[in-house]
């Protein structure tokens, strides 16, 4: 069942519904290929069709929702090639982020990244999926702040939105989380301690290359395990 109805507070309703629907998609409440029926969502979230349509448009920009002619919105279905393409772009962007941080971050920004890595021993390694998500988001906020490049930050934010589903898959696996943390430690050492731009780029690219390979494997495994929704009505 969907996560729940919205609460009435100052944040625009469309943002609340978009957040709830995003969580439901990432949690598997709505499976890849499943039709997103407006009537069902209006009832589930307790809002009008107008609000639902605005939320769907927002998630369409994030590529979590695809609108098909004569069928309407569905949860986006990606191929292995689609996932690989997104991760190729992510690898290049995050490699650049590591390089720029090592070159341009202030000592205070380097210290902040180091401090956050220490905090991640609890929030990430021994945390919940939710705290792991929050810790990883904060890691990237600090890394990107140190680059001083707003264009890179905006582009990488868009890529991260497209791969939110695969990032969550990885955060469920404790073994992968431990390995990921060691990769992050290597990134921080290169970017914030030794301040080696080439090594920082290489460490970032290595981290994403592994993540991309695992994302393809896990997504295909889950698709094979789930019933088909392409013809759902």
Question: How would you describe what is shown here?
Answer:
- The model is unreliable at 228-233 (pLDDT under 50).
- This protein has two domains: 13-77, Arc Repressor Mutant, subunit A (Orthogonal Bundle); 80-223, Four Helix Bundle (Hemerythrin (Met), subunit A) (Up-down Bundle), CATH 1.20.120.530.
- The chain has ten helices and two strands, in the order αααββααααααα.
- It has helices spanning 13-26, 38-45, 49-61, 80-104, 107-123, 129-147, 150-162, 164-172, 174-193, 197-225; strands at residues 65-68, 72-75.
- It has a two-stranded antiparallel sheet with strand order 1-2.
- It is mainly α and 233 residues long.
- It holds the Pfam family FCD.
In short:
By secondary structure, the chain is mainly α. The protein contains 10 helices and 2 strands, in the order αααββααααααα.
């Amino acid at each position: 069942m969907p996560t729940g109805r919205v609460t009435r507070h100052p944040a625009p309703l469309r943002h609340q519904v978009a957040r709830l629907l995003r969580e439901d998609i990432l949690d598997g409440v709505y499976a890849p290929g499943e039709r997103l029926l407006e009537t069902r969502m209006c009832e589930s979230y307790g809002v009008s069709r107008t609000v639902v349509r605005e939320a769907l448009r927002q998630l369409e920009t994030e590529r979590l929702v695809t609108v098909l002619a004569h069928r309407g919105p569905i949860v986006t279905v990606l191929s292995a090639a689609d996932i690989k393409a997104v991760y190729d772009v992510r690898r290049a962007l995050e490699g650049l982020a590591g390089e720029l941080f090592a070159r341009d971050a202030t000592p205070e920004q380097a210290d902040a990244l180091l401090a956050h890595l220490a905090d991640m021993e609890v929030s990430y390694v021994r945390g919940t999926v939710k705290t792991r998500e929050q810790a990883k988001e904060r890691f990237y906020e600090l890394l990107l702040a140190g680059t001083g490049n707003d264009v890179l930050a905006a582009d990488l934010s868009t890529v991260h939105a497209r791969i939110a589903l695969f990032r969550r898959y990885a955060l469920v696996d404790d073994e992968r989380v431990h390995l990921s943390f060691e990769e992050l430690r290597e990134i921080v050492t290169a970017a914030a301690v030794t301040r080696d731009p080439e090594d920082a780029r290489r460490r970032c690219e290595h981290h994403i290359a592994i993540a991309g390979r695992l994302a393809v494997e896990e997504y295909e495994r889950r698709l094979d395990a789930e019933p088909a929704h392409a013809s759902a009505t």
